[in-house]
Amino acid sequence: MAGAAAGVLLLIGGAALLYANPGLIFKGGDSAALAPLATGAMDKLVTPARAEPATDYVFRAPDGSEARLSDFRGKVVVVNVWAMWCAPCRAEMPTLAALARAYEGREVTVVTVDVDHDPGQIAAAGPFLQANAPLPFYRDPKFQLPFELPGKGGMPQTVLLDRQGRIRAHLTGGADWSSPEARAVIDALLAEPA
Fold first, then answer.
1. Where are the domains of the chain?
2. Which numeric CATH code is attached to 28-191?
3. E strands of the chain, at which residues?
4. What gap in Å lies between CA 169 and CA 33, rounded to an integer?
5. Cβ burial, residue 136 (10 Å; 0-12/13-18/19+)
6. Per-residue model confidence as pLDDT tens digits over 31-82
7. Contact in structure between 137 and 125 (CB atoms under 8 Å)
8. Which pTM was predicted?
9. In which band, very low, low, confident or very high, does the pLDDT at 30 lie, cut at 50, 70 and 90?
10. Which sign does the torsion angle of CA 71, 75, 76, 80 carry?
């Protein structure tokens, strides 16, 4: 009888420990583990306590077909929502291109989603991205994706997804994505088990 009571107490104690420390269960999905990397060029990086699945909102791929963030599962994904009318968006684009080139051939993809709806701005966005190769020209003509992401409409907005398609960090405003600090965050996500 005493052994059963001790077992129940141990079980309750263990459950209380896990309840008070959910990070013990969610190793590799605990975005707070990235928090120490939010320094220098990444000082505005927000790392939520728990990784949540990214939206399944539909936007347009470069070939015009439907695309979703879930299409990129299996890779670390840097999602950047931008527009031609947004000066900080255009200013950070060369750094996103440098990040994409630095990780070519690895399990990292940079997804740049333009939210312009003015025909002139859309026409200018394609050549602008070509000048910032190898960035792809995804589009959200409804300008809804920025509101589906944690930045709630902020521009530019960049969201980092792990290989399971979960939001691990996000940053609203311009940043230097070619910086050593940005690469440290990407490297940390890459180092996690697939």
1. 28-191
2. 3.40.30.10
3. 52-53, 59-60, 66-67, 76-82, 108-114, 138-139, 157-161, 166-172
4. 10
5. middle
6. 668 999 999 999 999 999 889 999 999 999 999 999 999 999 999 999 999 9
7. yes
8. 0.83
9. low
10. negative
